[in-house]
Amino acid sequence: MVGAGGRGHRARQAPAGGAEPLGLNPVAGPAAMPVPSPDVSSSDVAAPPSPDDAADEPGRAVVRVGVLGCGNVGAALVQLLRRQAKVVEARTGLRLEVASIAVRNLARERDVELVPELLTRDSHALVEDPDIDVVVEVIGGIEPARELILTALRHGKPVVTANKELLANCGAELFGAADAAGRDLLFEAAVAGGIPLVRALRESLRGEPVRRVLGIVNGTTNFILTRMGEDGTSFGEALGEAQRLGFAERDPTADVEGLDAGAKAAIIASIAFGARVVAGDVYHEGISKITEADIVSAQRLGYVVKLLAICEQDETGAVAVRVHPAMLSRQHPLAAVRDSYNAVFVEGDAVGSLMFYGRGAGGMPTASAVLGDLIDAAVNLRKGTYASLGTFGRVPIRAIDETTAEYHVVLDVADRPGVLHAVTGVFARHDVSIRAAEQEGLGVDARLVFITHEAREAAVQATLRELRDLDVVERVGGFLRVIGA
Amino acid sequence: MVGAGGRGHRARQAPAGGAEPLGLNPVAGPAAMPVPSPDVSSSDVAAPPSPDDAADEPGRAVVRVGVLGCGNVGAALVQLLRRQAKVVEARTGLRLEVASIAVRNLARERDVELVPELLTRDSHALVEDPDIDVVVEVIGGIEPARELILTALRHGKPVVTANKELLANCGAELFGAADAAGRDLLFEAAVAGGIPLVRALRESLRGEPVRRVLGIVNGTTNFILTRMGEDGTSFGEALGEAQRLGFAERDPTADVEGLDAGAKAAIIASIAFGARVVAGDVYHEGISKITEADIVSAQRLGYVVKLLAICEQDETGAVAVRVHPAMLSRQHPLAAVRDSYNAVFVEGDAVGSLMFYGRGAGGMPTASAVLGDLIDAAVNLRKGTYASLGTFGRVPIRAIDETTAEYHVVLDVADRPGVLHAVTGVFARHDVSIRAAEQEGLGVDARLVFITHEAREAAVQATLRELRDLDVVERVGGFLRVIGA
Prior knowledge:
Helix content of chain A: 25-40%
Oligomer: homodimer
CATH class of the largest domain in chain A: Alpha Beta
Number of domains of chain A: 3
Number of strands of chain A: 17
Radius of gyration of chain A: 27 Å
Number of helices of chain A: 15
Largest sheet of chain A: 11 strands, mixed
């Protein structure tokens, strides 16, 4: 066990042979330098951890890690931990050791060499094992992950998880349980893979008036849209290529329909605004209906098409969270985020614009984020402290109908007198103001392309419904929201 | 004073009228939910903060902040703190109050409204004042900032600083003093303004094998290079524009000669590699000699010119840190960082490529970073804990001569037989291999443009010296290192 010094803890020492005196202060307390004599002003401030911590620990404290799951991320984590053990020890004074890994199938081949004694099928025993200090959950899905995490916390073990689905659905329950246990529940890897976004939002930007977060948080769809935009391939062809390259699942629904991005958006909104947002609060629309024509039309106007997660909080505190394809100006920093990369763009009143860019998935990048959290959890456990998110407030959730954007709409219409007049009349009746319009001939038909000024979604949807009912309108297509300054 | 619960601290309560019961758990401990009954496995783990913390604090704990300096950043911080006080209180249970501001000139007009009682000329009294809990240093420069920070730490006060010059020169002394005092010394704002880079490097990436960090960390020079690249203006014109817009000082030396970026690079290298690097270890070369011709030549070859801070650690642990203008592929994410924006690109073996983008300077963005640190310091002080960087190891520092890059070299030569042969012979003798060469006629002269394969700086400098001595070479120009994969 790892505990704060001086409270009767049983420190597990590293074996004598491996306990190199690295000459570094353990994080738990100042090892060598004397505490300055307290003066009046500081005597009632909590004393720093007492220097006899150091005397307790001639060797290094070992932190025993239990891992739930040994797929892509779990195997990468075990490899990374082995490789970086000495660096972590030098920087923190703690030796992280994988003590047990719970898997479903003991016989399956793994991406990492493991002695058979490390593996167990009994995940419930692992999270209750008094010899495990910290638990990493990388199995995914809601159950049994939820039950296992709750049990681990109840047993005083900090938990690191990469499970977006679970947090987007049961976050409040889990964070409450972590606070009740006084233990960390860390989840950097659950939102944007290797990108250190969660820590930035929950710590660095805790005082920042964040207004909006725009994210490209799904690598599969970004890869597909990049291929469609740069090579002119169709959605189906690009999806096939993504599947061949391992960027898309055989059943790509969760990615291409925006469900994966939606879960991440719920978590982002929760921590950015300190508000309770669950997956069910997120409007989502995927990219499977995006055509080559949409992308060409966007490009011609100076835009790229991206699947965006958009989290907004208005002056009243109400929050709107949605995922949909959007046209983004080619000048916007997110427009340069290509292939399977992810990036999150944060707009704050004080800090201005920030962007965080990197690998949103993949075994090693995700394992890197898990390792960062794991070190934090181990250091905190040793200090007898933990990080709390506080309680997320309940805020009004605005439906997509109440959000605003500019809109790109393409209409195929009959080419005869009065058509433009009839069509623009519909926009006007719904108070949707047109910023740009263009007409091109198509034989007997014509194509009208509109970009509106900022308008309410409900008004635009009502406009589209009425346009579809017009005799002269053959087809309403090319519907895309335009996002970004 | 703010202290950890249950150690006889004197909690300063908010006035009754202002103490709204927000229904949020203070971060210090679980207020409402009972601690689960400890079982055998957790009985020797440090207990979470005892629930009677909550009973101690029906109101909100007030944290009194002393600010050293009230320029651009100081004034913005005071404004931001006032605006965000309620949000911070809701999220942390702490009320941050500016209690005193030390300034040189009491009469000077400020960008923020202040009651005269807040101001003092006695900065030494401020850092010793028992009524000040946390100190923010935004005066800059080495003295008296160093002495004031050391005194504050000795008096048990955590310190937040935005002072890159001080940290790049005296970091080890200051971090040692913070560890000895058991108090935070936080400095997010010292490296990249509003961009949360320091926290990412020191926490999220603590276990990551970081190989290289490339940074655009000076807004003035990035603005100038952007203007030169996009508008074809000269260095002098672009500098004048930057000065008119307030992006450059009247004496721009520290910015344009790479000194400012060099100090930031020293800090980045220290925390990225856990190594002791000071400003004097950094090679620096500015942008004042970059010509329009250099930029046009780079663009023609698919590159942009940026002033880069480059921090590298090799397999042996040796570190090289340098600042110089460089050619960067137009495909590189840093190439899209325009105007006065900053960005830092981190390359790690596990996490892959990460980029952090935002405002590297300016009152409000910098104040945002200070506020993030200030909240952290207040929360930690209250919990009786602090974050340590550990001790930075001493590592070999590699001089620029030992680094490698590809090199872009332009030679004006006499246009006669055998010249190309003579010139390429010099490259070959120094083992510098040529990747691309191009010749264009200039009347009786000719211009040769070379890009080398990866080569050692010392070998390339020797090549240049010998080329300058060749009769047929009129001029060696267009010397730029090519960086990035």
